[in-house]
């Protein structure tokens, strides 16, 4: 990221099991997004248009009123193969669909020379855990070949993944579902 640019932060309330999201913006767009608010991130975003756009679009998405966030992404916190895999996910796995770690590895083209069984899939799992723009690049849509797979943040992280996959219609709502119908 150019040194003249700095991240400014905002916290967006959500119905997610993790609570609010913390979002960092630059002049190019959203550079970082994570689950669980972090009060006191500095510097705070003081641009009312950015705060409104990010808050309203994430709110509409999580309320089931839209399937697209429509927020620009500043890709400067990812590079090389990581960025290629994230872009492949964002561009090729739409709302309501999932892809396995291995399928995403193959589709990205990044791992063509990898011959060790399972290495590409495991590496994609690590890349998803290091996704700087969670939700905007929907790492919750990447699942294991034999189940839901992991998600950063331990038990709460898995609950967030299940919540998002339920919102998108991939999973059936459970009795404790607190999202939109």
Automatic annotation (TrEMBL):
Reaction(s) catalysed (UniProt annotation): a 4-O-methyl-thymidine in DNA + L-cysteinyl-[protein] = a thymidine in DNA + S-methyl-L-cysteinyl-[protein]; a 6-O-methyl-2'-deoxyguanosine in DNA + L-cysteinyl-[protein] = S-methyl-L-cysteinyl-[protein] + a 2'-deoxyguanosine in DNA
EC number(s) given by UniProt: 2.1.1.63
Record domain Methylated-DNA-[protein]-cysteine S-methyltransferase DNA binding: where: 83-170
Keyword flag Oxidoreductase: no
Keywords: DNA damage, DNA repair, Methyltransferase, Transferase
Molecular function, one GO term: methylated-DNA-[protein]-cysteine S-methyltransferase activity
Annotated Pfam families: DNA_binding_1
DNA damage as UniProt keyword: yes
SUPFAM superfamilies: Methylated DNA-protein cysteine methyltransferase, C-terminal domain (SSF46767)
Domain of life: Bacteria
Biological processes annotated in GO: DNA repair; methylation
Family to which the UniProt record says this protein belongs: Belongs to the MGMT family.
Function: Involved in the cellular defense against the biological effects of O6-methylguanine (O6-MeG) and O4-methylthymine (O4-MeT) in DNA. Repairs the methylated nucleobase in DNA by stoichiometrically transferring the methyl group to a cysteine residue in the enzyme. This is a suicide reaction: the enzyme is irreversibly inactivated.
Protein name: Methylated-DNA--protein-cysteine methyltransferase
Species this chain originates from: Kitasatospora aureofaciens (Streptomyces aureofaciens)
Organism phylogeny: Bacteria, Bacillati, Actinomycetota, Actinomycetes, Kitasatosporales
């Amino acid at each position: 990221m150019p040194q003249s640019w700095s991240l400014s932060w905002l916290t967006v309330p959500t119905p997610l099991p993790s609570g609010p999201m913390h979002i960092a913006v630059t002049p190019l767009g959203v550079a970082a997004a994570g689950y669980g608010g972090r009060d006191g991130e500095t510097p705070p975003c003081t641009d009312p248009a950015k705060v409104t756009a990010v808050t309203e679009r994430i709110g509409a998405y999580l309320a089931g009123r839209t399937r697209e966030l429509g927020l620009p992404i500043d890709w400067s916190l990812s590079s090389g193969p990581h960025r290629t895999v994230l872009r492949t996910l964002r561009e090729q796995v739409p709302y309501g669909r999932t892809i396995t770690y291995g399928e995403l590895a193959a589709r990205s083209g990044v791992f063509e020379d990898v011959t060790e069984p399972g290495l590409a899939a495991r590496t994609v799992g690590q890349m998803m855990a290091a996704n700087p723009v969670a939700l905007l690049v929907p790492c919750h849509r990447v699942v294991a070949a034999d189940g839901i797979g992991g998600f950063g943040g331990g038990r709460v992280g898995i609950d967030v993944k299940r919540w998002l996959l339920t919102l998108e219609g991939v999973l059936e709502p459970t009795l404790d579902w607190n999202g939109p119908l």
